[in-house]
Amino acid sequence: MCSLFGRGLAHYIYNNALHARRAWSNCKPAKPTPPAATEPHSKIVDVCCEGMVVKIIPARSNNYMYLITDLPTGCTAAIDLSDNKILFEILKKENLKLSFAFITHHHEDHSGGTQELAAACPDVKICAGDERIKSVNHCVKDCEQLKLGEMTMNCMHTPCHTVGHYCYFVECGAGGPPALFTGDTLFQGGCGGFDEGTPDQMYAIVKRFLELPKETRIFGGHENTILNLRFAQCVEPENSSISARLFWAQKQRENKLPTPPSMLCEERTFNPFLRVDHPDVQHYTGDTDPSYVLFCLRKQRDAFK
Ligand SMILES: [Zn+2]
């Protein structure tokens, strides 16, 4: 009796398992849900100044690339090629013709699209200053100026994050505020790692940036403002510009809005890397030598999560 029952039960389990397996094999595979990383981290936003439009384009997990268009002539340039698929979609949708691409540095998340762009659009001038970047057909030099319609593109060699890093300072023909595309050299409330450079080099860059017009709009290569400002708060807990900017940045991010651009004169109030001359920043690092202050800030920032 016992064994009969046992056999029956075993048969029951076997049949059910078989049925389940058939049911499984007849199932169409569920439509895979796209991984979260493919969701854009921010909305696409146009920043309009007189005579010039900067389109802020989110890419990858927290990169930004940009399209700048000279309104009188329609001349359009890309800054960094982080994701060509998004770029080509926007160019098509907005009926824009790309004439230039300026690459800030050789890291793949900024320069990854150069070969594909060169193959698809051989007329586009691909400009950069590092031989590690593929398919460059115009090698830029420090202080070189290029005309983009009525805009003037000024190339600034800024070696520190990488040896061949360039920032691009754009003056629009109509006299509106200029724009500075900083790649991984300067971010809102922070700066990039000194991967291939020294604090002295970074200090030379800081001095150069601080000579630019105070209304310059800063467009960095990543969305990392909140973390930068949290670190800035550790450096200067009493600085109300930092807390106000952090509150604003959190609101922006709640609505998936980009935090760039900031103005250079604003950065001067809350970015510790542009405040190496301030007594509170010097107190935090325990030194007054600007390069050493930058070295300490960067070291602490590297450890800050
Ligand atoms: Zn980089």
TrEMBL record:
The keyword Oxidoreductase does not apply. Pathway: Secondary metabolite metabolism; methylglyoxal degradation; (R)-lactate from methylglyoxal: step 2/2. It comes from the Eukaryota. It holds the Pfam family Lactamase_B. The keyword Nucleotide-binding does not apply. It catalyses: an S-(2-hydroxyacyl)glutathione + H2O = a 2-hydroxy carboxylate + glutathione + H(+). CDD domains: hydroxyacylglutathione_hydrolase_MBL-fold. Keywords: Hydrolase, Metal-binding, Zinc. Residues 62-222 form the Metallo-beta-lactamase domain. InterPro entries: Clx_II_MBL (IPR035680), HAGH_C (IPR032282), Hydroxyacylglutathione_Hdrlase (IPR017782), Metallo-B-lactamas (IPR001279), RibonucZ/Hydroxyglut_hydro (IPR036866). Its EC number is 3.1.2.6. Its cofactor is Zn(2+). Belongs to the metallo-beta-lactamase superfamily. Glyoxalase II family. This is hydroxyacylglutathione hydrolase.
